[in-house]
Amino acid sequence: MSVPNVVVHRDGDVLAKAVAARIITRLVDVQSAKGSASLVLTGGTVGHATLAAIAATPARDAVDWHHLDIWWGDERFLPTGDPERNETGARKALLDHVDLDPDRVHVMAGPDSGMSAEESAEAYAAELRKAARPEDHGPVPGFDVMLLGIGPDGHVASLFPGMPALYDTRPVVAVHGAPKPPPTRISLTLPTIQASREVWVVAAGEEKSGAVRLALSDSGPVQVPAAGARGRVRTLFLLDRTAAAKLPPGLGRIASP
Asked: Rounded distance, CA 204 to CA 13, Å?
């Protein structure tokens, strides 16, 4: 796994715009080299603000959206269209505004599909297996960019501290009894996260500063799941000043004064 690099931006608004620009640049570079690319989305305030920033910039047209696979790191097990679903927020912020191939938008099924949470997780794992290529050397694709938020408790995706999902080696799991609502979720596991070529952890706000510090220390991923959020080629912690406030001096590079 790669060693994290830390980039600090002035505030949450600048952070969202900067991450949007990074995503566009990265996707264009990957598509130029391979013809297609893959992006794993996250929910949360900064995640959706980043997608809205992509939608708002003319530079978005540099991306070949029709040759992009969209995945999710986790989903709340709620019906299609529920405003609390990560998919719903992503569609409103960006996905409904660009020319995506519907077959390459890989959503996690909710209860309206007739599946249980376990069946939804198994179906998503099967979709990941189908998309994996020989060069990925495993049951999931080596995603080009995986975006992750981080909770004040150090959780990423729907992997919460001390919960059984952190020990699970399957690609995707159903999570029950999550400490924040809704209690039932679908989540990629740490092995799937760590199979990504690049993992970008994005955080804004003082309430995230303690978790960010622990995630970049010697903490273990069972206690601090974000400590296990690492990409094979590159790991970035993209932060605003308040989220970076508890980091040791000199650890982060200041990107915007």
From this structure: 9
The closest of 106, 148, 107, 110 to 131, measured between CA atoms, is 106
How far is residue 183's CA from residue 76's CA, in Å, rounded to a whole number?
A: 8
CA distance 231 to 145: 9
- pLDDT, the chain, mean: 96
pLDDT (tens digit per residue) in 190-227? 999 999 999 999 999 999 999 999 999 988 999 999 99
Q: What is the pLDDT of residue 8?
A: 96
Pairing outcome for strands 145-148 and 253-254:
unpaired
Q: Cα(110)–Cα(254) distance, rounded to whole angstroms?
A: 40
What confidence score (pLDDT) does residue 1 get?
84
CB atoms within 10 A of CB 157: 30
User: What number is the average pLDDT over the span 222-236?
Assistant: 97
User: 23: exposed, middle or buried (C-beta count within 10 Å: 0-12, 13-18, 19+)?
Assistant: buried
